[in-house]
Model the fold of this input.
Amino acid sequence: MFADRVLSGMRPTGSLHLGHYHGVLKNWVEMQQEFECLFFVADWHALTTHYDNPQVIAQSTWDMVIDWLAAGVDPARATLFIQSRVPEHAELHLLLSMITPLGWLERVPTYKDQQEKLSEKDLSTYGFLGYPLLQSADILIYRANQVPVGADQVPHIEFTREIARRFNHFYGREIGFEDKAHAAVKKLGSKKAKLYEELRTRYQEQGDDEALQSAQALLDEQQSLSLGDRERLFGYLEGGGKMILSEPQAMLTAASKMPGLDGQKMSKSYNNVITLREDAAAVAKKIRTMPTDPARVRRTDAGDPEKCPVWQLHQVYSSDDTRQWVQTGCRSAGIGCIECKQPVIDGVLLEQNPMRERAQQYLDDPTLVRNIIADGCEKARKLASETMRDVREAMGLDYS
Ligand code: TRP
Ligand code: SF4
Done:
């Protein structure tokens, strides 16, 4: 088997916040210790929804890469690149589009969901319909077998698996595979050839696993077969040819429970975020002005942490002791809300300090970031062009 190769992408459509850190980036940082990782800026994906305002993409791209680096993504361990700088993604997308049934795309749940959710945008475009297929190309071009995604993206991975299977079904045979397989069968000698054919038929017509195993054992014993013929006969047994594209697995990342400043999930669209590297004074101010339990009108009114968004942040940032202090102090009006918020402010700043520090060198010298990306694009392109060579050959496009 191949070693695990992880691939994930993120759209550059605005600045990242602590929800992205807790939901995605922390996970990337852990994975880079264990696996070969490729992380990319999905700028073409951003265009599928932001085609009328492409300017945000350029600015967000560089900010986002700095956010990744700030969060601890390490360019010595992971390959970081920009999708549009590896144009092979587009070539694979185009070639895969030839075999993609429209119905498969129309049935991807995010298609209708997003059209409804973003109803202010006209998303009845060819690019938007095809966006899951672009994602399939992103994954398949690196033969990535593990794709960390949230639950909403799992159908895209399932779709990708179906596309890979369909591709292999159409093109996973060399030209003249059947003839070459028949010729190889003859080389077994008439008695064994007959037995092989019988076992193959039994397996393919009746799904008889024992027949498959016997036929495989028969092939194992044949020492005079060439390597190519052996592979053909093994492939022919199961009906398939060569596997050109491999099916990826979704690596489900737990949904981010990161609460925002108002107690709802942290999200740009709710306007309740703390950005990843937000200025310390701004962070303190945002938390100090957070709403609290509305029952605590005066300092002497007791409160209930369960009704307070600040408590949700304590659950992310505070120790057991501090949480105990909040529970007791709030319910007895022993502490004030400003006092209660201080440990949260401290916790957020402590988490962000190393991020602000790591980001500084990249802000001081933007060529560092440009170089990291240039290196990553070059590595990615090399991997992508290897797959494309196999794909073109399988589809018969390498003719002269
Ligand atoms: N579609 C993903 C999103 O909207 C981003 C993405 C694009 C992606 N290509 C990918 C994620 C490939 C994983 C693998 O969040
Ligand atoms: Fe919320 Fe803390 Fe005030 Fe209680 S004391 S209402 S938990 S901020």
Observations:
- Residues 175 and 396 are 8 Å apart (CA to CA).
